[in-house]
TrEMBL record:
Its main location: membrane. It comes from Anser cygnoides (Swan goose). Residues 292-400 form the Peptidase S74 domain. The keyword DNA-binding applies. Residues 1-246 form the NDT80 domain. It is a single-pass membrane protein. GO terms for molecular function: DNA-binding transcription factor activity; sequence-specific DNA binding. Residues 1-246 bind DNA. Pfam families: MRF_C2, MYRF_ICA, NDT80_PhoG, Peptidase_S74. The keyword Manganese does not apply. Belongs to the MRF family. InterPro entries: MRF-like, MYRF_C2, MYRF_ICA, NDT80_DNA-bd_dom, NDT80_DNA-bd_dom_sf, p53-like_TF_DNA-bd_sf, S74_ICA. It is found in: Membrane. This is Myelin regulatory factor like.
Amino acid sequence: ECGHSYHTLLCHHEMYNELWFTLFISESTLKDCAVEVQEYDSDGQNAALEKCYQALTWQLYQTSQWNSLFNSNYEKLPAVEYHIVTDKGFNFSTVDDAFVCQKKNHFQITVHIRITGHPKYVKTQLGMKPIEKFYLKVFGIRVETPNQTIAIEQSQTDRSKKTFHPVRVDLPGDQITKVTLGRLHFSETTANNMRKKGKPNPDQRYFMLVVGLYAVSQDQFYLLSANVSEKIIVRASNPGQFENESDVLWQRGHVPETVVCHGRVGINTDAPDEALVVCGNAKVMGRVMHPSDSRAKENIREVDTNEQLRRITQMRLVEYDYKPEFASVMGIKNTHETGIIAQEVKELLPEAVREVGDVACNDGEKIENFLMVDKDQIFMENVGAVKQLCKLTNNLEVRIEELEQWNRKLARLKRLSSVKSTISGGSTVRYVCLECSPIVVTEINEVVSVVEMKTDFESTISQSTHPISRIPEVNFCDILPCDKVYCCPIHQPKVKYQIYEKTDAEEKRKLKCEFLLFGRQHIWTLPVARLYDSAYYFRVAAPGFASCSTDPYFAGMFFTDYYFYFYRQCN
């Protein structure tokens, strides 16, 4: 029957190894010529199959013996485009790792041929020969001895068998011609088909099927193109040992109520490429366990969770619908899903994406190098991203707590400042200088906030000596108003720091220690000696806000540092 569309043809044979006809189908018409349908069709069944299955693969055969075609102007035409599909009769045996054909069962093949231009001559070793007709030949060869051919037989309508003779085909130029050859049988079986201890015979012999296109001129056949199949096992009738081949794969396990399969298992698919391939949904009521023992691992190292968070942030989460022609092949009922795009994940996390080969859809479209995603990898990326987010959250919580503490301290400082502003007058602070030269006691009006100290407090005054080469001339009366002048006695003071919290009646210098509103006024002795210079440093801090280890950044806010340098200037 002629007139089938290209898409219908490709759906029937979606396991093509070569899709060469896709290059020119748009510019050619498809001519479906089921040659002598009553004779060659298989029990009235067309080549169309309801379901696609694993098919024989084909390779070029004896290319050195191919002959070229020429048109009426003796111009060489392109090589014949030639493709073969086995429609039925061959089943792949996982145990034998080969296709098996039962001798009593017929098989069927479909050949697609396209000739570019209009051939008139075939070039032979004797020169140009006019083409009279084209023929298709089908025969078998032995793998171990390719020169020995195996005859092919064909069942007749009365179920009798006759030798299959070459079939004449018409090949119009610039068109695709489809030829279906059915009801074919091998005339003999392969050798050493018997099992040995339930396993394939190591001396198993194989056939290969050859389909060739020939040009005929003056009763001579000239090969134009030919393909040869992969190895085939041809068996006689179905003996019991072959009917239970599954027993070799499925065996009773050592544990009660267990079954063991040595091979790959496919559900809703006949070409599993993993230990278990399920085309459809799967329900798991228990847990899915993964090996994770450290004793079975090496090169263990921490991952960068910051990088995992970055990758997860860049991954795009989308909603999508699977194409109906793809969903039907994969057994997907709910086509609407939420997920990720494999091509985008491959750019961020290449190890989570893998190519699984070509996938054919129901409409004949083939998706080459189909990509699949390992969602376990994505899950572990999410675990690392969550850990990084926990770190960031903890850091933010600590920072917020610190800011709240500073906020409370600032509020207290504001209250202190408001109280200080209510003081009408300043406190008198006496600065006593123990120098050899005349010095002054200067009274300065100023509001002072001094660190509140307990009786057992030890001051942290630092004292150091720094020799100088030249003493500058300084007249302190030019800086501050001089009220009274005292002379410092020369003596060796004890290097001792004392805290005077009350007025000491026995103090030699009768220095007065006055209590302020927010602290105390403290006076320390300063050691003075000949040829002795000293530096004097102390810090005035707001109570509860600063200490000796407070960050210098807060100088002027919570504390003020004072540095004094004392030196002798004597005649």
